[in-house]
Amino acid sequence: MVGPDKGYAYALQASRDAEAALAFDSAEDHLHRALELAAMTPIGSDRDRKELDAVVALGVLATMTRCWADGQLRDIWARARELCERTGDATRLFGCLWGLYWVAQTAADGAGADRLAPELMTLAEAHGDPGLLFGAHYAAGSVAFFRGDLRSAEARYRQAADLVDEVGAQAVAMYPIQPVALGPTMQRCGPQPGHRRPSRRADG
User: Fold this and answer.
1) Can you tell me the distance from the alpha carbon of 175 to that of 147, in angstroms, rounded to the nearest whole number?
2) Neighbours of 190 (CB within 10 A)
3) Tens digits of per-residue pLDDT, 83-112?
4) Considering the entire predicted model, what is its pTM?
5) Residues of 9-24 as b/e, b for ≥16 C-beta within 10 angstroms?
6) Nearest-5° Cα angle at 107, 101 to 113
7) Half-sphere exposure of 61 (CA within 13 A, CB side)
8) Is the CB of residue 160 less than 8 Å from the CB of residue 139?
9) Rg of the Cα trace of the chain?
10) Residue 196 DSSP one-character state
């Protein structure tokens, strides 16, 4: 009989294999099984780390298969954030905050996005990682854009654009963004089409 630890590792690998085969429903089922097996581990740091691995994988998968405004997706990233903070996993915390930020942005939750954008910037600056800084500047620019402050938005987008060459196209592609022209130098960064328009009190 396979024990919980081996079963957990098998479920995670089975999920990866199913995802690679584009069998997303099966991949999600395996991740839920992994979470069930993680819950059999005695309460402590090992259990938290196992749950974190599975929840983050579930968040990444759900991001590909569900609407970004899905309440369940918000719950997944909120739990992942809680586990990152509990285990001290600062490396993955940014991704969890970004997931929560983008859910808020696509759900037109301006207050939620406003709260999360500064947290992204603080974490990115603490790490000094160009890829994280790109995402944080982009988030700050989008918050300003939807608030109607186009001058601040363009300044933030410029800062993000300045990092594109350093970060590389592959890293930039990890963020769910598409180009929009806010000015002649802003061909590479901007909010996705389909979002709400900024208010008419915008500067410029």
Assistant:
1) 21
2) 24
3) 999 999 988 999 999 999 989 988 889 999
4) 0.79
5) eebbebbeebbeeeeb
6) 30
7) 25
8) no
9) 19
10) P
Give the Cα separation of 102 and 5 in Å (integer). 33
Distance between CA 76 and CA 95 in Å, rounded?
12
Per-domain residue ranges of the chain: 1-65, 90-204
113's enclosing H/E stretch is helix 110-127
Q: Which residue has the higher pLDDT, 174 or 199?
A: 174
**54's tokens:** 């599975």
60-73 pLDDT, tens digit each: 999 888 877 677 89
Locate tokens 């309460």: which residue? 43
96 and 60 in contact (C-beta within 8 Å)? no
CA 86, 89, 92, 97 torsion-angle sign? positive
